[in-house]
Amino acid sequence: MAGKPKLHYFNGRGRMECIRWLLAAAGVEFEEKFIEQPEDLDKLKNDGSLMFQQVPMVEIDGMKLVQTRAILNYVATKYNLYGKDMKERALIDMYSEGVADLGEMILLLPLCPPDQKDAKIAQIKQSITNRYLPAFEKVLKSHGQDYLVGNKLSKADIHLVELLYYVEELDPSLLASFPLLKGLKARVSNLPAVKKFLQPGSQRKPPMDEKNLEEAKRIFRIK
Amino acid sequence: MAGKPILHYFNGRGRMECIRWLLAAAGVEFEEKFIEKPEDLDKLKNDGSLMFQQVPMVEIDGMKLVQTRAILNYIATKHNLYGKDMKERALIDMYSEGVADLGEMIMHLPLCPPAEKDAKLTLIREKTTNRYLPAFENVLKSHGQDYLVGNKLSRADIHLVELLYYVEELDPSLLASFPLLKALKARVSNLPAVKKFLQPGSQRKPPTDEKKIEEARKAFKF
Predict the structure, then answer these.
(1) Quick check: keyword Transferase in the entry (chain B) (predicted)?
(2) pTM score, two decimals?
(3) What's the number of domains chain A is made of?
(4) Which chain A residues are within 8 Å of B77, Cβ to Cβ?
(5) Which domain range does residue A29 map to?
(6) What is the per-residue pLDDT across A51-68, written as a single tens digit (0 to 9) for each?
């Protein structure tokens, strides 16, 4: 077995952060090689390391995996965070994909033209309050268990709790009427590996600021 | 075990078509309940049948599954189209996700404002020719086998071949310099279950009619 997984991305959340969270929650130590200049990205491309010329890329168990979901699914399977059978996996996937949909909206917010931003934020808040948080609160209510699926921690809980932190960053009041989600957030945050990841000095990345955004645009050649 | 899977969606390709392809290729008969008016969608929402108030939704094995990938993953696992171990699954996922990225661009093309359409089309052609098709041609070249992963048909082959049909619809010349992909397309198309699905009269949906999409857009407010 090779050494620690090696994450290739720029020094920011982006599409790699959910992978960092999952590895951290699974108690897996990982290394990061930050792409700081467009030339770093070019080098990876020319090396043939990126199947679709894109990052995230994770070197793990002799593979150079790209595509966020491929990486997440592999990590989840390897560390038993993907349920006990195919029906549990279906639920975990359904929940994880819902989280990903909302997460994508929040992820892309910094790229929104300034004149459309307020409307976009309002739309996101509305989705959070009326669509996504109620759906997950309902799951927890339906079985009264500590975790979303199979009474056991899975990737679905980790992805959801990560998202709840971003919802809280957007507007803490959004979580107010969801007691079971607040309970899940607290419970998962208190797991030793997650608690450690939440401390300052961990590999968790801060919210994107103007400087970070400019850097990302420069590296990925986004206008 | 419940009866046939029931697919809830509009009578069009959209986000359900890849599911239809996968079920068909797996030799699984399925029923379809088409959403024709906003009231049909409202009913599903009010029934509590749609976890996130969205379709696709597939009733299968006692579950009401939403989210395209959740549905695809379940079907692939159930019908042994997801590789033999976790490393094969990783490759299958990587390839399937690449297909999905290009597929998403093509799917959204009819929704593109007319002023932006030419630019969008050019971008899609560029990515098809320079990014996606070479990547998959290289995989086949690297091992010389008949299928993308593990020398066995998997969902990756089915998703890719479906995509190749859409690339061909866009511009047949795009496939010209990819002999191994053309061969994969022919090989998979010739499998009995796929061959049947490709015949007229099957549940395969035709290209999206721009007029129909405008109507759907107004009716369903997207």
Answers:
(1) yes
(2) 0.97
(3) 2
(4) 86, 89
(5) 6-79+197-211
(6) 999 999 999 999 999 999
